[in-house]
């Protein structure tokens, strides 16, 4: 179609005035440029697609991070639980020893052992606090998952744009507003989904939980 | 298996169904809470939580 247009412009060019000749020449150059651009994009597209597939994506790094923190946290929680169990056993043992020593008039020694038992109870509380503190991992994992979703979406849109418009095009507004709007919408939605304990309690009250 | 699935399985088991279940979750969405209530949850804690909240909820379950 572009070639037909050029031929038409060329054939018509002989019948127009001199000042219009320039316009037809410009139009002809424009048509040739469009044709060259189409050919370039068509040749570049397979390369862009294959190279974009090789791009190290931030989302895969975040997924790895998510997995690693999850595994680490679970291991710490498992070990902490084992330590807690061991401490409970030792506390019971010490309590039994104290009882025995008290009857054998070993009052002083019993007192010191009682102190040791007290320290172990204290440490047990600390271990519980450590486990409670580790629950942050669930929250982190949720945020990371949301981030991965957003990154995947942005990546696919960018690749789409690159393939459609070609990497030589720049400085144009290529739908950034749409993507940003989408991201903002997602962030807004994520804020709405967060629920505080007070809200949960209010809902539970409605269901008759007192 | 999700927490809700586990809760449903417990409530469906004759030997286990009387056991109180306190859900501690970061899936802080109203729909999750309603689903948990319908599945028979005993109480519900949203992460992050304090020791006082846990104590209060356990107190309500075992009063």
Task: Characterise the protein shown here.
The complex is a heterodimer of chains A (210) and B (63). Chain A has 210 residues and is mostly helical. Chain A folds into 2 domains: 1-54; 57-166. Chain A is built from 7 helices and no strands. The longest helix of chain A is centred in the middle third of the chain and has 46 residues, at 58-103. Chain B has helices spanning 3-12, 30-39, 51-61; strands spanning 22-25, 43-46. Chain B has a two-stranded parallel sheet. The radius of gyration of chain B is 12 Å and the shape is globular. The chains are: A mainly alpha (210), B alpha+beta (63).
Quick summary:
The complex is a heterodimer of chains A (210) and B (63). With 210 residues, chain A is mainly alpha-helical. Chain A contains 7 helices and no strands.
Question: Which keywords apply here?
Answer:
heterodimer; A: 210 residues; mainly alpha; 2 domains; 7 helices; rod-shaped; B: 63 residues; alpha+beta; Rossmann fold; two-stranded parallel ribbon
Which protein chains make the most extensive interface, counting residues with beta carbons within 8 Å of the other chain's beta carbons?
A-B, 20 and 20 residues
* Cα-atom radius of gyration of chain A: 36 Å
Note the overall shape of chain B.
globular
For this structure, the quaternary state is: heterodimer
Order of helix and strand elements from N to C terminus of chain B: HEHEH
Estimated share of beta-strand residues of chain A? under 5%
Low-confidence stretches of chain B: none
Distance between the termini of chain B: 30 Å
Q: How much helix, percentage-wise, in residues of chain A?
A: over 70%
Q: How large is the count of helical segments of chain A?
A: 7
**Averaged pLDDT of chain A:** 69
Broad shape of chain A: rod-shaped
């Amino acid at each position: 179609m572009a070639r037909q247009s050029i031929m038409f412009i060329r054939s018509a060019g002989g019948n127009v005035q001199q000042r219009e000749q320039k316009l037809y020449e410009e139009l002809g150059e424009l048509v040739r440029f469009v044709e060259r651009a189409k050919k370039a994009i068509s040749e570049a597209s397979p390369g862009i697609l294959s190279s974009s597939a090789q791009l190290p994506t931030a989302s895969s790094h975040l997924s790895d991070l998510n997995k690693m923190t999850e595994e680490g946290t679970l291991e710490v929680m498992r070990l902490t639980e084992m330590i807690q169990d061991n401490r409970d056993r030792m506390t019971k043992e010490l309590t039994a020893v104290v009882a025995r020593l008290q009857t054998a008039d070993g009052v002083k020694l019993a007192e010191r052992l009682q102190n040791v038992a007290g320290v172990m109870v204290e440490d047990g509380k600390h271990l519980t606090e450590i486990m409670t503190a580790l629950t942050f991992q669930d929250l982190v994992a949720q945020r990371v998952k949301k981030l991965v979703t957003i990154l995947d979406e942005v990546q696919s849109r960018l690749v789409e744009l690159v393939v459609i418009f070609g990497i030589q095009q720049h400085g144009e507004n290529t739908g950034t507003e749409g993507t940003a709007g989408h991201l903002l919408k997602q962030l807004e939605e994520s804020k709405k989904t967060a629920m505080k304990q007070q809200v949960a309690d209010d809902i539970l009250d409605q269901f008759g939980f007192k | 298996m999700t927490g809700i699935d586990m809760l449903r399985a417990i409530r469906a088991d004759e030997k286990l169904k009387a056991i109180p279940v306190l859900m501690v979750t970061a899936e802080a969405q109203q729909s999750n809470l309603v689903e948990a209530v319908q599945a028979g949850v005993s109480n519900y804690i949203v992460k992050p939580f304090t020791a006082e909240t846990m104590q209060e909820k356990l107190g309500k379950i075992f009063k």
